Amino acid sequence: MSSTTKSYWTQWDSLLIQDGVLCRKWENGRGDRCHLQMVVPKAKVPDVLQLYHSGCSGGHLGVKRTLLKIRERFYWVHCRDDVEDWCRKCTSCAAVKGPQIRSRGALKLYNVGAP
Fold this sequence. Notes:
InterPro entries: Integrase_H2C2, Retrovirus_Pol_polyprotein
Protein name: RNA-directed DNA polymerase
Low-confidence stretches: none
Oligomer: single chain
GO molecular function: RNA-directed DNA polymerase activity
Radius of gyration: 22 Å
EC number: 2.7.7.49
Domain Integrase zinc-binding: 40-97
Helix content: 40-55%
């Protein structure tokens, strides 16, 4: 059994079908807030990432805010990993941020005499 299947199996009590769409009932840690998240099939994950990070409503907000926006309405296993990967590979974000590794100057050899 795949890790994705195992994850959905353990959440069986939180899953329901509403209007022909598989949804997940999510409650916060205190249990005072509950809402439904649509379960996204693996094939549609890039579409959601494109819309919420790179699309008109996205704005290249970075990992944290993109993840918050997606989790308001959607759910899939390994969502955080997919969002982090998408943001890391985003060419627009990379162009604004600049290079991740700072270049260092060339090393030079100096002859040192006795003190």
